Amino acid sequence: xxxxxxxxxxxxxxxxxxxxxxxxxxxxxxxxxxxxxxxxxxxxxxxxxxxxxxxxxxxxxxxxxxxxxxxxxxxxxxxxxxxxxxxxxxxxxxxxxxxxxxxxxxxxxxxxxxxxxxxxxxxxxxxxxxxxxxxxxxxxxxxxxxxxxxxxxxxxxxxxxxxxxxxxxxxxxxxxxxxxxxxxxxxxxxxxxxxxxxxxxxxxxxxxxxxxxxxxxxxxxxxxxxxxxxxxxxxxxxxxxxxxxxxxxxxxxxxxxxxxxxxxxxxxxxxxxxxxxxxxxxxxxxxxxxxxxxxxxxxxxxxxxxxxxxxxxxxxxxxxxxxxxxxxxxxxxxxxxxxxxxxxxxxxxxxxxxxxxxxxxxxxxxxxxxxxxxxxxxxxxxxxxxxxxxxxxxxxxxxxx
Length: 401
Fold this sequence. Notes:
The protein is α/β, with parallel strands linked by helices. It has two domains: 266 residues, Rossmann fold (3-Layer(aba) Sandwich), CATH 3.40.50.1100; 113 residues, Rossmann fold, CATH 3.40.50.1100. The chain is built from 18 helices and eleven strands. The strands form two sheets. The chain has a seven-stranded mixed sheet, sandwiched between helices. The chain has a four-stranded parallel sheet with strand order 6-5-4-7, with helices on both faces. Strand 5, helix 7 and strand 6 form a beta-alpha-beta unit. Helix 9 crosses helix 11. It is globular, with a radius of gyration of 20 Å.
């Protein structure tokens, strides 16, 4: 399904609080944090020239977040950053002065962090980031996972020393349980979704994602004309769309938000003209995007900045995974998880949809930016869907490079 954004807020400036979060000063904060991380390096921007020629566009570029900070996902930029910001601020209140990122490993900061517990609900990747951030500063982490999160993903989070708490039901149920127990135990919730009265921390999480645009713009010879970006609750889509709008104004790329057809809360919200919760049905293979209610902050931004919303099927996502793993014409192979490839699935769908082609002004000069939001964060699932272990795809890419 494809839907042009017809919201009454479409095209309006971002609200002041969102412009402050996603603007240049906010992006600078994230880069200051990353500069003190030992394992930080910009992720690659991979061109797929053969695929671009096959599709009749000028360029297809993939920002590969599967290599981010050792966590295999763009989420590494959000949760950990929010945890550190909160610890810095709490330490600063105790000391009566601002605390710099360079003091991240100081005894006084770790003494503050040791008294704090950070909690979140997760499909897998956000929880790893929060747990890694807590471990970085010496805090505790309590991570709530719903019934659909695989044991492999649970184990990957637990490796950072987090307490793992299983919750019956869906991601939304785990969000509610994390909030309830955290209120009882005075834990700090670091959620990547927002609700009435809880916006600042999710906004910090989104601020972390602005680095993706910063790096991509340095890696490109000219800005993209289109961005196809996947969404669960909408955090990364809103962060990238908002930062591009603030950075490039009218020259910002057209933004298409892509969701699983079985969990399309933003598409439904765009149809209704306001945030809605969709019913939980059959699970989608795109596990990291299986969310049934949008983040209110993300929706507020996307209602202004997204040009269109669309959905893709499980079959289309799996086909995109395989297309990236087995490229043609000398393009480099990319390990994309079942949620990481969704932008490509959306692009392929849109190019076969006459309404979408007209609405998005595709031509042979279009420069398409995609984000591989995760690598093989569940290697067993990846092998099941692609028929190859991720390390074999990586080895093939190295040989072809």
